[in-house]
Amino acid sequence: MKQVDLVIIGGGSAGMAAAIQAYDEGIRDILILEKDARLGGILNQCIHNGFGLTEFKEELSGPEYLQRFVDQVKERGIKFKLQSFVLNITKDKVITYSNAEEGVVEIQAKAIVMATGCYERSAGAIQIPGDRPKGVITAGTAQKYLNINGYLVGKRVVILGSGDIGLIMARRMTLEGAKVLCVCELMPYSNGLQRNIAQCLNDFNIPLYLSHSISKIVGKEKLEKVVVSQVDEKFQFIPGTEMEFECDTLMLSIGLIPYVSLLNNIDCPTSSTRGAIVYDNMETMIDGIFACGNCLHVHDVVDFVTIEGRNAGHGAAQYIKEKEEHGSLKIEVDPNLAYVVPQFVRTPVKEDLTLKFRVRKEIRDKKVVVRHKDEVVFSQVKLVMIPSEMVILTIKKEKLQDITEPLKVSVEDR
Amino acid sequence: MKEMVCIVCPRGCHLTVDDNMNVTGNSCPRGAKYAISELTHPTRMVTSTVRISNRDNMVASVKTSEAIDKSKMFDVIKAVNKMSVKAPCHVGDILIKNIFDTGVDILITKDVE
């Protein structure tokens, strides 16, 4: 069996960042396995502007952002295989992949970085009443057809879900000549960035109906119309609030889910994000297998995916060079927080600790406090925290030198 | 008095502009600049795709080199849809120079070999 030091599964933003970081720390025998025909992952279809503010201090389109990393991968001569799909991994880090030239191949890695991204929640996941005609499509699929292949999937569109991809696609399809009739959102607030509501909906007078959902899909073979109804606090449709929209496309932007089926096959413990539980170096609970990017938890901003990818690449490089025994302590969160990544910090702490989390609902004018026993090791005032924006904070390693108990993250009054 | 959401970066600050064009609610100078521009001369970055004459089933992404008059967004898309490029093309190649005499170029944003 062929041996490789580091195998990276997924050649998107997280995977490329991990590969580049590991290379720069001296690991030369690296292989990126990418299922698509090109590197870059989902950014290939995100042709809109706004990527790279943290990383490059400028605003780039998705393809421009990814190209900078493709160039870095190629400059270093890091090996990658395209259209190569990973079928299986084992706890002993044997990877089975297949592609057209080699057939089915097994390789042995010293370390693996999982950078497999996420997938869209589809129509099957939410039970919309009514018919099952063609014309119901996820926003990301419509985006791929339009921005990679050049096909507009419909002319009269209703969008369910106010996630950013749906908002971005509302603008994109409008500019290409489609009529976007409305966006309906089950929750009383939008899940998208405020600026996308401003520049993707308001600019084109597309109505956003909060606390609304699709109460009926109508269409024998092709979609003919949808019925939109208001919902109450328990998300039940309110009779008498129906609005009918004749349309040929119902586009779904109803959430993203980390893609972790390879990890599930080896019983890798996962958290409430559905991604793997990890230490601060992005190593999962399975020795030598690391995870980063959207397969760990879904990010809002690609720049932070890149940073997390580097962290995983750094962790994997250290693991390959010199495997160290370490202790670990849990990072606990109070009920205001939906999750935290990482869930464990290795001890003794040798590097600054970055924590990422989301709040469950909007929180204004509070502070985030991290405690070890009774001692405050971190405190920061946050004017606004909302579920759709990940919070990132960094605790200096000096504050964590003698920790012996779990760290506790909480939201408290100022 | 006018309220708006800043679209300069993903942060999305809530801006207020009073009658004397004083901006509040911004976290950075770019927000103030955006608010004034939005009230006097609104502009937007436009991104789209262009046909590749020698590739099937594939388009190349493009963008305006800087933000362009908001009222010209649809005209930009129409102009780009009349064009095509020939592969190979690269990030930064100019598709249309000085579109509608605005000083703004339409640039390719994707490498196609």
Brief synopsis:
The complex is a heterodimer of chains A (414) and B (113). With 414 residues, chain A is an alpha/beta fold. Chain A contains eight helices and 27 strands.
Main sheet specs of chain A: 7 strands, mixed
Mean pLDDT of chain B: 92
Give the number of domains of chain B.
Answer: 2
How much helicity do the residues of chain B have?
10-25%
From the coordinates shown, what is the CATH architecture of the largest domain in chain A?
Answer: 3-Layer(bba) Sandwich
Indicate the CATH architecture of the largest domain in chain B: Roll
Count of separate DSSP helical elements of chain A: 8
The major beta sheet of chain B can be summarized as:
5 strands, mixed
Description of the molecule:
The complex is a heterodimer of chains A (414) and B (113). Chain A is of the alpha/beta class and 414 residues long. Chain A has 3 domains: 1-120 and 256-324, FAD/NAD(P)-binding domain, CATH 3.50.50.60; 122-254, 3-Layer(bba) Sandwich (FAD/NAD(P)-binding domain); 326-414, Sandwich (Immunoglobulin-like), CATH 2.60.40. Chain A is 21% helix and 36% strand. Chain A is built from 8 helices and 27 strands. In chain A, strands 1, 2, 5, 6, 7, 8 and 19 form a 7-stranded mixed sheet that branches. Chain A is globular and about 65 Å long. Chain A starts with a strand and ends with a strand. The relative contact order of chain A is 0.13. The mean pLDDT of chain A is 95. Chain B is an alpha+beta fold and 113 residues long. In chain B, 19% of the residues lie in helices and 30% in strands. Chain B has helices spanning 29-40, 73-81, and strands at 2-5, 14-17, 23-24, 43-44, 47-52, 59-64, 68-69, 84-85, 94-96, 106-108. A 5-stranded mixed sheet of chain B has the order 8-5-6-10-9. In chain B, strands 1-2-3 form a 3-stranded antiparallel sheet. In chain B, strands 4-7 form a two-stranded antiparallel ribbon. Chain B starts with a strand and ends in a 5-residue tail after the last strand. Chain B folds into 2 domains: 2-41, no CATH class; 47-108, CPE0013-like fold, CATH 3.10.530.10. The model of chain B has no long low-confidence stretch (mean pLDDT 92). Chain B is elongated. The chains are: A alpha/beta (414), B alpha+beta (113). The A-B interface holds A 44, 47-50, 53, 59-64, 67, 70, 146-150, 175-176, 193-195, 197-199, 203, 300-301 and B 4-12, 14, 44-49, 51, 57-59, 61, 63, 70, 73-74, 77, 91, 109-111.
